[in-house]
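[audit] Reproducing an earlier prediction to check determinism. Same input, same settings, fresh worker. If the tokens differ from the archived copy the diff job will pick it up downstream; this log only records the rerun itself.
[audit] input (113 residues):
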Amino acid sequence: MEAKAVSMHVRQSPRKMRKTLDKVRGKQVGFALNYLHFSPEKAAQVIEKTVRSAVSNFMNSSDDSNLDPEVLKIQTAFVDGGPPLKRFRAASMGRVSRIRRPTSHLTIIVSDE
């Protein structure tokens, strides 16, 4: 059995989030939460919150109320690019330069297998 959690429109680039996500992909939930909680990276907070949400979704959908969340495993974890926020900034000689601020969509699937 598996459960899924998605965080959309995260204000960080997918490339930076993948760097942190690669460390916990395929690991046990207990190890992943411990690593993410003490990691200084900005992406770790969002990933930890999404993992906790996926575990909660699993516990609510499962029939076994005695199941320990520590035995769960992060089966699939990936980051996709979201719509960029388009901003403008003053440039030299009265021109305008475009700034694209990337966003991300994070998906985590936990499983008990």
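[audit] rerun output stored. Observation attached for the diff report: The mean pLDDT is 93.
[audit] end
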